[in-house]
């Protein structure tokens, strides 16, 4: 056993993406120093792997000077609009931003550390990586979703290609694409393919292009809706709503997409799956109770109800019907988690009160869900 | 004297633009009903007159459901991103949004009422329009700037055309333009002209394209910086920094722009002035003390220091070095003014406390001015 192995951390954060970096800064602000952020690759690795063309749907604007956080900031005092000079960062740009945040706040990041197992043992956690077993009083699971695409939604899904595995739409062979899933990533795929003069059929079980709500977790973003109005999108893309896919088959050099009502779509290129992510949570699924919808059941402090000391940060956080996807939503819970942890460690963490005025401390969920009247 | 003339209003708001509509909603929320908003034309008229191509530089996104106001909202519960479905509204689009806000909140707007004079008389104000003299206990000056371009910055400026007077860049005759002023509206002019394949020389006394700050009142917006990277902008536009213009002359069919250091620029089209606005304040300049920089001196409640009962809303509001331009900044003072007025009228205005959690109640200026670290 190496010296490292016997050290007892106060907190281990799993994942150095938006959630891991954001909650890491909050831990620092709470006065916690004895912690480590582990990442399978490095800071922002999942963003780094986004398709080259894919951009954030939420616009960044440097509004720090009026006390309003940039929508895509993971911490107070930073703004990707300022550091990157773009409104809709690409994944690679945002990864660079996260690296600069980690550097400025001197976050203790341990890269190339793939977590294989998290176990509760006596009063602490044992976190196993390929090379070490680390010990910690508390654990924050902040691993992302992007590297864990949802892969088996229907028979034959293994014949399709998930959009998360595409390095660049420009490099895809073929002229004719079927995209299954019409939300943000489906529209993104169709938009870029149509930019490259490909023909696209965009299939969805519902009709996300017409949802009338101002709730951004449900409605398609303005960014995507505007893209759908581009001349080339309209010319190249056929929208096929209310068409649940039942199976995908291969017939010689063609792919067959079978849908409800006996509909059949064929293409020579593998159909693209734009249907979201399973997430990394299965790695720790035994440490959480499950809600009816499969998401982990959490305490009011985002702690596991069956494994005390294990917290969850990121887009998988759910409370009642509140969905915390997108950075500007789940970032509002970083301080809640940091405060709960500081309290367990006996620290006052007064600096975290500052998070409230920045809209970064959401402990009253009653304010959520307000829609627009116009 | 008509019956209307003897009615005593609690408040008259001058101007039904972003400031007038926004503070009007705040008055409603404060429980004030006996008020009227006067506009020379109609709701949003100044935005209606923007050049057709000009868009908001601040991005809209419908974040109401997480308690974060759309950057371009003038009131809680509304979002131009949601009602318009665009990220950077044009002036005409935003005017339509303001009309819908006025309708939803049932604001008492009196259009086609040009205010000629505001006088303090006994314990009330007399507000003269072409047709009526209205009486009111209190007045909010919320008239805009756009219809009052700064016109005489140097000799010969009258030979130039202010960008605020251009209905559409597409319809401008000529192939070769000199734009004087390189901030947002100058870059906007150059961008659209270059889109239409015109050659542009963009002249500024400083070098706004390189200011390194995250303060959006000073730095060029991401929107403009991204436009400057467009292929056609780079191909068609020549940037001429550190070049204060001394005079403009006409020589036959040519315009001559003389600048510091003996530089001379010629064009057949009238030079375009993109140098900001004088504002409407001269109409009531005798009712305010002046700061050293010419802006009106205001109490902590944005009330005139020499004419009690007269309040100011809009982009001309200044406190110390704090500039409240852009809607997302000056909107933070609507509730401050509404609260001061409610207090004078003996109303508790408790509902205004709700403005705080939406970042719409800025009474502590110490939080302002925070820049980004990265």
From TrEMBL, chains A, B:
InterPro entries: Auxin_biosynth/cation_transpt, FAD/NAD-bd_sf. Its EC number is 1.-.-.-. Keywords: Oxidoreductase. Signal peptide: none annotated. One of its GO terms (molecular function) is flavin adenine dinucleotide binding. It comes from the Bacteria. Pfam families: Pyr_redox_3. Gene3D superfamilies: FAD/NAD(P)-binding domain. This is Putative oxidoreductase CzcO. It comes from Symmachiella macrocystis.
């Amino acid at each position: 056993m190496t010296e490292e192995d016997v050290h007892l951390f106060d907190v281990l954060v799993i994942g150095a993406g938006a959630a891991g970096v954001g909650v890491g800064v909050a831990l620092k602000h709470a006065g916690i120093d004895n912690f480590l952020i582990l990442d399978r690759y490095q800071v922002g690795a999942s963003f780094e792997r986004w398709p080259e063309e894919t951009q954030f749907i939420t616009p960044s604007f440097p509004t720090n000077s009026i006390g309003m956080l940039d929508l895509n900031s993971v911490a107070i005092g930073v703004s990707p609009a300022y550091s990157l000079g773009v409104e809709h960062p690409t994944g690679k740009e945002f990864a660079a931003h996260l690296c600069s945040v980690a550097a400025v706040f001197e976050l203790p990041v341990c890269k190339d550390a793939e977590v294989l197992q998290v176990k509760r043992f006596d009063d602490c956690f044992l976190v196993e990586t390929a090379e070490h077993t680390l010990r910690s009083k508390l654990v924050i699971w902040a691993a992302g979703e992007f590297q864990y695409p949802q892969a088996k939604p229907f028979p034959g899904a293994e014949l399709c290609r998930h959009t998360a595995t595409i390095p660049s739409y420009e490099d895809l062979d073929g002229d004719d694409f079927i995209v299954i899933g019409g939300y943000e990533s489906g529209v993104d795929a169709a938009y870029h393919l149509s930019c490259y003069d490909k023909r696209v059929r965009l299939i969805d079980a519902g009709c996300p292009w017409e949802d009338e709500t101002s709730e951004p977790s449900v409605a398609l973003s303005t960014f995507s809706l505007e893209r759908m109005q581009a001349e080339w999108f309209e010319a190249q893309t056929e929208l096929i709503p209310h068409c649940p896919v039942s199976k995908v088959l291969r017939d010689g050099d063609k792919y067959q997409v079978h849908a409800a009502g006996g509909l059949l779509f064929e293409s020579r290129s593998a159909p693209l799956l734009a249907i979201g992510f399973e997430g990394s949570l299965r790695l720790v699924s035994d440490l959480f109770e499950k809600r009816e919808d499969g998401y982990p059941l959490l305490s009011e402090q985002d702690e596991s109800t069956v494994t005390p000391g294990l917290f969850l940060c990121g887009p998988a956080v759910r409370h009642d019907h509140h969905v915390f996807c997108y950075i500007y939503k789940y970032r509002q819970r970083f301080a809640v988690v940091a405060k709960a942890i500081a309290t367990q460690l006996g620290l006052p963490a007064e600096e975290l009160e500052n998070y409230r005025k920045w809209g970064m401390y959401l402990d009253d969920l009653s304010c959520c869900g307000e829609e627009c009247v116009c």
